[in-house]
Amino acid sequence: MYIALFLLIAIFLAFFVYGVYREKNGRQRIEKLLEEITDVNERLRVIEQQKTEFISIASHQLRSPMTLVKGYASMILESTFGTINDDVRKAIETLYASSEKIVDLINELLTVSRLEEGHTALTFTTVNFVQFVQQVLENMKEKVQSAGLQLVFTIEEEARAIMVEIDEKKLGHIISHIFDNAVEFTTPPGEVRVAVAFDDIEKRIRIAISDTGVGMTSEQIKALFERYDLRVSAEGEIIARTDINEYVGDQKQGAFQEPSGRISSGIDIYVAKEIIHAHHGHFMAESDGVNMGTTFIIELPIVGHTVS
């Protein structure tokens, strides 16, 4: 009996010791794995920082010569160096347009790199949001009329007195770009709708720019807001992609055409998202699908509040 009891105790102790040994080894393996993960994350952080610094330095180095090219092209078009024939003018106009797009891209890359480095690169002023939007749209009315579209602009009464802190130049560029796209991708007799509303509970103001155009799939909307990947078309158009296979070789006005018919808008959407986040705001897009129109929404905190 005592021998049997002794054997049972010995077996129990053996299993106990083995369990402790396994637990100790397991903890050691977990600790080692966590150390490796931490090391990999740190290396990835350093690589990301180096990439951001490279983009910033490269952009700075490229901006000066491209600005020079754009300037001389403009002077030639203005006949500063004498008259030019129609064929030369057409070629210089193409050169000027391409250089202008590249300069804009360089400026956008610099903006993103500054934001990612923790530098806002924004100049904030307090403005009446409705008046600001009205000023931006005033410059867009002629484009809508020329395209044979109808502009519908609605303002919620509670929104008229709302003040916001924004970078007027950059936010104005974002709204103008979204509006340009809405006009570009809508055929007559379509509509472009702009609605400004105030959310009294969340203390934020919203602008929604909608069109009745070609629309987008959910996959395309997701890809719009992902970090950019660039390539250049034959005409010098800078465009972005998530997967090269998402785009086809058909071209329209110098840009690659996506399967739905909507044209890639370069890195503008990614840049817009980063800038709006720097405003403590939200940026999103909605579409019910191809040929169902698209809505881009910007939400900003009113003065003294932050969007949650």
TrEMBL record:
Domain Histidine kinase: 57-304
Gene Ontology MF term list: phosphorelay sensor kinase activity
Coiled-coil regions, chain positions: 23-50
Top-level taxon in the UniProt lineage: Bacteria
Keyword ATP-binding: no
Catalysis: reaction(s): ATP + protein L-histidine = ADP + protein N-phospho-L-histidine
Keywords: Coiled coil, Kinase, Phosphoprotein, Transferase, Two-component regulatory system
EC number: 2.7.13.3
InterPro entries membership: HATPase_C_sf, HATPase_dom, His_kinase_dom, HisK_dim/P_dom, HisK_dim/P_sf, Sensor_HK_Regulatory, Sig_transdc_His_kin-like_C
Protein name, UniProt field: histidine kinase
Organism of provenance: Candidatus Azambacteria bacterium GW2011_GWA1_44_9
